[in-house]
Design goal:
Layout: H1 2-26, H2 32-54
Helix pairs in contact: 1-2
């Protein structure tokens, strides 16, 4: 059960990052370095969710 809880926690963080990414992208002059940082964080979370789901 702890694994499922961890995956759900990661999913929520992933969604929060998605919202942050959308807000940054909608700014008049989005910061490319911020966009890249958020995308990398999202990818790490997704990879972790996949790894946990397989375990």
């Amino acid at each position: 059960m702890a694994c499922e809880d961890r995956i759900e926690s990661l999913r929520m963080k992933h969604q929060a990052l998605e919202q942050e990414l959308k807000r940054e992208a909608l700014r008049p002059y989005p910061d490319d370095s911020v966009l890249v940082r958020i995308k990398k964080q999202k990818l790490r979370l997704k990879d972790e969710m996949i790894r946990l789901a397989r375990a």
